[in-house]
Every structure is written in C-alpha cells, then in structure tokens.
C-alpha cells in the first residue's frame, strides 16, 4: 500500500495523499488504537487541530497538529466535521474540505465510531421499542434483560430512566450527562429495576417547569430528591380542584408578570438576599415586591410557615399543569 501511494502520488498528488490516509487509519484499526490516537492522526494528517466530542458518553478530545493534547474550547460552527455515530469529529478549519481533509474526516470518523461502539457500548439513540420493553413492569424479566442487552446494558449496570418533556424516554448509564430540556430523572439501579426508575422519572417530570417568568421552577427534577413531596402527586389528578393557596397564587400571578418568578426565587433560595441576587434585583426591590404579594396571597412568605405554604402551592400548581 505504501509503495502504491508513492507511485500514485507521482501521478496525482491528491490521490496519493488520500491513499496514504486510508492506509494510515487501516493500520490504526488493525492495531485496535484508542480514540486519542485516532484524533491525533486526524490532526497530524490534516495539519490542523482536530477534536472528537460525544456529549452522551462524555468524550472530549482535542489534539493540535503537532500531536499535543489540549483542552477543548468554544467550537466554530463553520468548521468541517463528520458524524462518528453519536459523536462528531471536527477539523478546526473552515470552508469546503479538500480531498485530503475529506478523506481524513471519513476514515477517522469511521475508526472513532468503531472504537466507541466497542469500548463504550451504549447507543445514543436507542431503539424506542426496546426501551419500552425494558421499562415495562408487565413484561417478563427475561425479555426485559434480553432487550437491555441489545441496548448495550449488562444486568448489573447502574442505569436510570429519564422522562423528557417531549414525551420521549431515555436510558442513562450512571454516571452520565443528562439530555437537554425538561426532564424527570428516575433513581439509578440494575436493569431489573428500570420499571421502578421509569415510574420515578414520570413522577419527577410532573414537578418540573419551563423555567420561564410565567412558569418558573426547575427544568430538571430527580425523583430521589422529592422526599415527601412525591405524595402530593397522588392527590392531584384530572378534575382535582385547586386548593385555596394555589388559587391565591394564581390571583397574585395575575397582578404583575414578575410575581411568579419572584415567589419561586424566594421559595428556592436560602435567604431573601440570595433570592434578590438570583433575580438580579436590589434587596429593597424584593421587599417591595413581597409587600405587593402579601394582601393578595393572604400570608407572608418571609416567615418559615409562609415559605412552606408557598413551596406547597408552587408544587401543586406544577402538578396541575403537568397531568400524567
């Protein structure tokens, strides 16, 4: 292959260089090279920095053209890239790729994808039908274990279910980064416990909010952290009438656009000063706002009892907004 590349280069330099790239990554594949070696090869052959990122598997590798590994910084959207399964390989160079860069991207991405699948198992976009079977409490355990194996999970792997606001369900190996967006996160455990993790994830999702001024609150909630609040979910279903404190909260929200965000910050902060910092307002402004809410709510959120009522009213409001 090397001799052929030399002879071909004499006739067509680009074709010779491309053949050299193919032979290079074939040798890495035969040697079962790791991800760093593959990215280093991409950087050296292309003459520019290369990086490989797989957010789900927490892989972040960047290598300079001299072969030195460096931390990843901000990515430029114009860099040329190629998908490597759930990962992406970039060459930090803009504009249309030349023949050599295109071949480097193709061969390095293929090599990286093979290594990721061989060493880090879990597919990023799992088969929804298999996921549905794994979390189905009514399915026979051998079938669920078999489905989990096809998704890349061993029976003892710690895994948790994530229920997304979009309605999708993801299985997340532990430890693992959460997907973006609203999410309820179930407890981690072995594969046979995934139906219970799913129930926890769906329950936790009901306590999430959009995180906006009109729907303030956490976008991600872990079932493990709900404690006794989880009992509230069973009390709120379709047709359940709001309790008086929730009605008072809704009346207060109608008086000014900042009310809900202000009350949510008070409920979630360790002190009023911390709440003012979170809201980016002066402490006196926060005091004025709370004085505004007092006659509408009918209770003072600045004392412990009032904050507890506020916590519960906000939680009940989210449960009403997020019916299962």
TrEMBL record:
User: Taking every annotated instance into account, which residue ranges of this chain make up the domain PucR C-terminal helix-turn-helix?
Assistant: 260-315
Entry's InterPro entries? CdaR-like_regulators (IPR051448), PucR_C-HTH_dom (IPR025736), PucR_C-HTH_sf (IPR042070)
Name listed for the protein in its UniProt record: PucR C-terminal helix-turn-helix domain-containing protein
What species is this protein from? Paractinoplanes abujensis
């Amino acid at each position: 292959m090397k001799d052929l590349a030399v002879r071909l280069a004499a006739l067509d330099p680009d074709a010779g260089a491309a053949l050299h790239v193919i032979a290079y990554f074939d040798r890495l594949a035969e040697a079962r090279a790791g991800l760093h070696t593959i990215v280093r090869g991409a950087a050296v052959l292309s003459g520019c920095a290369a990086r490989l990122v797989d957010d789900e598997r927490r892989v972040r590798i960047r290598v300079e053209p001299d072969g030195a590994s460096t931390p990843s910084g901000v990515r430029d959207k114009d860099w040329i890239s190629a998908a490597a399964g759930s990962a992406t390989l970039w060459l930090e160079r803009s504009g249309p790729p030349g023949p050599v860069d295109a071949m480097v991207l193709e061969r390095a991405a293929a090599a990286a994808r093979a290594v990721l699948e061989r060493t880090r198992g879990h597919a990023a976009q799992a088969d929804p039908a298999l996921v549905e079977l794994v979390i189905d409490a009514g399915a026979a355990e051998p079938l669920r274990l078999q489905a989990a194996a096809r998704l890349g999970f061993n029976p003892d792997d710690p895994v948790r279910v994530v229920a997304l606001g979009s309605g999708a369900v993801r299985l997340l190996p532990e430890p693992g980064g959460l997907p973006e967006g609203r999410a309820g996160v179930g407890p981690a455990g072995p594969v046979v416990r995934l139906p219970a993790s799913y129930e926890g994830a769906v329950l936790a999702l009901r306590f999430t909010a959009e995180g906006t001024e009109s729907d303030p609150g956490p976008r991600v909630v872990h079932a493990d952290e709900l404690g006794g609040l989880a009992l509230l979910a069973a009390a709120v279903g379709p047709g359940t009438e709001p309790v008086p404190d929730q009605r008072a909260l809704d009346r207060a929200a109608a008086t000014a656009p900042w009310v809900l965000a202000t009350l949510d910050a008070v409920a979630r902060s360790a002190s009023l000063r911390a709440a003012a910092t979170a809201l980016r307002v002066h402490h006196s402004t926060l005091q004025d706002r709370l004085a505004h809410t007092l006659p509408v709510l009918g209770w003072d959120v600045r004392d412990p009892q009032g904050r507890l009522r506020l916590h519960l009213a906000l939680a009940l409001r989210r449960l009403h907004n997020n019916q299962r």
